[in-house]
Design goal:
single chain; alpha+beta; Penicillin-binding protein 2a (Domain 2); Beta-lactamase; seven-stranded mixed β-sheet; 24 helices; about 35% helix; elongated; transmembrane; hydrolase; protease; cell shape
Length: about 675
C-alpha cells in the first residue's frame, strides 16, 4: 500500500499572508527610518552646518597659554638686578605618554638627577591640565639638551625646548629686598579664592612662576605681564602637528620696575659683612631714597626659580645666623646707645639746658646702682653723646619720664612700619606707661622708676630694626623734615612718590643741632667711634653714634666677647651721616652678636659703605678733587686690618662704649630676632 503526500493549501496561504505582513511592516519601518535619517541629515546640513563647522575647528585648533616674560627690576642707574635669561628645559605631557613610569625611567637614564625628584614630578604631571606640558628639569646643559632630542623617538610625551627663566645676576646681594619667584602652590590659589575672586587661569600653567618675597611679591601683578596664546593644530590624539601663527597671540612682558637702590653701594654693603650676620641700610637724608638695604648672610635666589634642593634648604634653615631672615625689616634688636640722642632730644624738648653739666662718678643710683662704663666727670649733652655716658642720660630720663622719651622716639621713626613696597615688617616696640598698662608683668601694670634708666640708654623692652635706625638718623641729619623712606622709584615708567606726607619735625632745628654736634664729636679725637670711622677723604667727614646692645642676661659675669659662643655675644650697632657740614647720606649698621663696642664692628663697615656713597656723588667728589686731596692708603687694606680685629678691639675708645647692666636693671632684655 503506497502513501501519497498531503498538501494543505490553506496553511500555505496563512504562512504567505503572515510573511507579507511582516515584510510590509519591516519595509515601512525601514522607509520611515530612512526618511528620518534623510531628514536629520538635511537638518544638520542645512540648519546646523555653521555650528558644527565651529565645533570641528575647535577640535582641530586650540589655544595653549604662553606665560609672559616677567618685568625687569633695575637699580636707580639702570643696572638689571632681576631679569630673564634663556633656559633649556625638558617637559612631559601625561596624555601623550603610553606609560608615565616607563617614560620617567628612560628619562632618568639621560638625566639622573630627575630620579631624586621622581615623586614630585609624578604629582605635578598628574595634577596638570590635559595635554599641558609640565617642566621636569630646567637649565639643561647643551649636552643634556642634545641627549633628550637625540632620544626623542624613544620618549613619547617628552619634549625639550627653550624658554625664559627668571634670573638674578647679582645673587644674594638683593635676595631679601627683591625676593624671588617660585612655583604657584595650592595656598596661593586658595588665598585668591578666600578673597572671593576667581584665580586667573595662568596660575594653573605648570611653567608659570609667582613672586614670593620682597618686590617680586609686592609688585607681582605689575611684573607678571599678560599671557599669550599659541593657536595650534592638533590631531585626534591631541598632539600638536602645526601652529597657526596668524591666530596666535604674543605674550606681553610685565612692567619695568626701577628701585632707588644703587648697585655699587648695595654690593659693598654685603661684602663688608663677610661671615658676620646683620643688616645695613643707607638713605639719602634729603629725600628718603633708600640706596642700600642688605641683610647678611644672604642666599642665592636663583635656586628658588626651579626649586631649591632639600638638603640646601635645610642647611639654610638650620644655620644659626639665619640667612633666610630679612634682618633689615623683620629682625628687631635693642638699639643700645644709638638711642641716646632720642633721650637727649626728649630732654631738650622738656626744657633741659644742653649746657647743664651732670657729674658722672661711674654709676647712677636709683634705689640701686646702675653702672656706667667709665667715670666721665662733669658732662654736658654734647660730651655725653661723644663719650656715650650712661649716667647723664639716665639722670635726665628719670626727670622727664618714659612717656616723653616714647613720644620723641615715634616722631623720629621708631615703633612703626613704612610703606616702601615690602610687607612683613616688624614695627618693634616703643614702651611707655600706657604700654605697661596693656602689658602688665605678673598682673602689675605700673611702670616703675627702675625701668627708666635702662630705657634711656636703649635697653629694656625697646626694640627697633635697621630701617627705623636709618630713618631716625636721616631725620637727625636733615634737621627739619621728617623724611620718609622710598624704595620704589618707578613702575612702568610712572614715578612713585615717598609714602606718607612730608612733614616738618616738631622740634626747633637748634635742638637737633645740639645732637648733631654731639655726634660730630663721636667720630672726632677721643670719641667712641673715632678710630674706625675715619673716611680718609680730607675735609669730608662722617658723624655717628656707637651702640652695644645686650643679647642676654649675664648676671655677675663678664660681657667680654672673647671665648663666648657666637649667640651669646652682644649686638653691635652704629649710625652715621656724612658729610658733617652738609649731610646727604645716612647709614645704619647692626652686627648681630658682633661683640662689645659699636665702634669696633659697626663703624668700620659703615665707613666703607659710606665712602662708596660719597665718592659716587658727583658734587662731593668734585669737592674732594678741588681741595687737591687724594687717598693716601689702600682702603681695602685698611678695612681688612680693622675688620679682622673688630671683635677683639680693646682700645679705650672701643672699651668706653659697653654699658654694664645687671639683669635687674634690664627688664625684657631682647633675644636674637625671631
Amino acid at each position: 500500500m503506497s502513501s501519497e503526500p498531503h498538501i494543505f493549501f490553506s496553511d500555505v496561504n496563512e504562512r504567505q499572508g503572515s510573511f507579507l505582513r511582516r515584510t510590509m511592516l519591516m519595509g515601512g519601518a525601514t522607509a520611515l527610518g530612512g526618511l528620518a535619517l534623510v531628514g536629520r541629515l538635511a537638518h544638520l546640513q542645512l540648519f546646523k552646518s555653521e555650528e558644527f563647522a565651529t565645533l570641528a575647528t575647535r577640535n582641530q585648533f586650540n589655544f595653549r597659554q604662553v606665560p609672559p616674560p616677567r618685568g625687569l627690576i633695575k637699580d636707580r642707574n639702570g643696572v638689571v638686578i632681576a631679569g630673564n635669561r634663556p633656559s633649556f628645559r625638558v617637559l612631559v605631557v601625561r596624555d601623550e605618554t603610553k606609560d608615565l613610569d616607563q617614560t620617567l625611567d628612560l628619562l632618568g637614564q639621560l638625566l639622573p638627577d630627575t630620579l631624586e625628584r621622581r615623586r614630585t614630578i609624578i604629582r605635578e604631571v598628574n595634577a596638570a591640565p590635559r595635554f599641558s606640558p609640565v617642566p621636569v628639569k630646567s637649565d639643561l646643559t647643551w649636552e643634556e639638551f642634545s641627549k633628550v632630542n637625540l632620544h626623542a623617538a624613544e620618549l613619547p610625551g617628552v619634549m625639550a625646548d627653550m624658554n625664559e627663566a627668571r634670573y638674578y645676576p647679582h645673587g644674594g646681594a638683593y635676595a631679601h629686598v627683591v625676593g624671588y619667584v617660585a612655583k604657584v602652590s595650592d595656598r596661593d590659589v586658595q588665598a585668591i579664592r578666600d578673597k572671593g575672586e576667581q584665580p586667573p587661569s595662568i596660575l594653573f600653567n605648570p611653567g608659570f612662576r609667582i613672586g614670593r618675597q620682597g618686590i617680586e611679591r609686592s609688585l607681582d601683578l605689575d611684573l607678571r605681564g599678560v599671557e599669550g596664546g599659541r593657536k595650534v593644530e592638533v590631531n585626534a590624539r591631541g598632539r600638536v602637528v602645526a601652529e597657526d601663527i596668524a591666530g596666535s597671540r604674543p605674550a606681553v612682558q610685565g612692567s619695568e620696575v626701577v628701585l632707588t637702590l644703587d648697585n655699587d653701594i648695595q654690593q659693598r654693603a654685603l661684602e663688608v659683612f663677610g661671615e658676620e650676620a646683620g643688616s645695613i641700610v643707607v638713605m639719602d637724608v634729603r629725600n628718603g631714597d633708600i640706596l642700600a638695604m642688605v641683610s647678611a648672610p644672604s642666599f642665592d635666589p636663583n635656586l628658588f626659580v626651579s626649586g631649591v634642593p632639600g638638603p640646601i634648604y635645610r642647611a639654610w634653615a638650620d644655620y644659626e645666623r639665619r640667612p633666610l631672615l630679612d634682618k633689615a625689616l623683620t629682625g628687631v634688636f635693642a638699639p643700645g646707645s644709638t638711642f641716646k640722642p632720642v633721650t637727649g632730644l626728649a630732654a631738650l624738648a622738656k626744657g633741659i639746658d644742653p649746657n647743664r653739666r651732670i657729674t658722672c662718678t661711674g654709676g647712677f643710683y636709683l634705689g640701686r646702682r646702675f653702672a656706667c662704663h667709665a667715670t666721665h666727670g662733669p658732662q654736658d649733652m654734647r660730651d655725653a653723646i661723644k663719650n656715650s655716658c650712661n649716667v647723664y642720660f639716665m639722670t635726665v630720663a628719670t626727670e622727664i619720664g618714659p612717656d616723653a622719651i616714647a613720644d620723641v622716639a615715634r616722631n623720629m621713626g621708631f615703633g612703626q612700619t613704612f610703606d616702601i613696597g615690602i610687607g612683613g615688617q616688624k614695627p618693634g616696640l616703643v614702651p611707655d606707661r600706657e604700654w605697661r598698662r596693656r602689658n602688665p608683668v605678673r598682673g602689675d601694670a605700673n611702670w616703675y622708676p627702675g625701668e627708666t634708666p635702662s630705657y634711656a640708654i636703649g635697653q629694656g623692652a625697646l626694640t627697633v630694626n635697621a630701617l627705623q635706625l636709618a630713618v631716625y638718623t636721616s631725620r637727625l641729619a636733615n634737621g627739619r623734615q621728617a623724611v620718609m623712606p622710598r624704595l620704589i622709584k618707578s613702575v612702568g615708567g610712572v614715578e612713585q612718590p615717598p609714602s606718607g606726607d612730608l612733614r616738618e619735625l616738631p622740634y626747633p632745628p637748634e635742638l637737633l643741632a645740639v645732637l648733631r654736634d654731639g655726634m660730630n664729636r663721636v667720630t672726632d679725637v677721643g670719641g667712641t667711634g673715632f678710630r674706625n670711622s675715619q673716611l680718609g677723604l680730607g675735609a669730608v667727614r662722617m658723624a655717628g653714634k656707637t651702640g652695644t646692645a645686650q643679647a642676654r642676661n649675664y648676671g655677675s659675669g663678664s660681657r667680654k666677647s672673647a671665648g663666648r659662643p657666637w649667640a651669646e655675644k652682644d649686638h653691635n650697632l652704629f649710625i652715621a651721616y656724612a658729610p658733617i657740614d652738609d649731610p646727604r647720606y645716612a647709614v645704619a649698621v647692626i652686627v648681630q652678636h658682633g661683640g662689645m663696642g659699636g665702634g669696633t664692628a659697626g663703624a668700620p663697615r659703615a665707613r666703607e659703605v659710606m665712602k662708596v656713597a660719597l665718592l659716587k656723588d658727583p658734587e662731593i667728589r668734585r669737592r674732594i678733587e678741588q681741595a687737591g686731596f687724594a687717598e693716601t692708603e689702600d682702603p681695602g687694606a685698611h678695612e681688612a686690618g680693622v675688620l679682622e680685629d673688630a671683635a677683639s678691639d680693646t682700645t679705650p675708645a672701643a672699651a668706653a662704649e659697653a654699658p654694664l647692666i645687671t639683669p635687674a636693671e634690664a627688664p625684657g632684655t631682647p633675644e636674637a630676632p625671631q
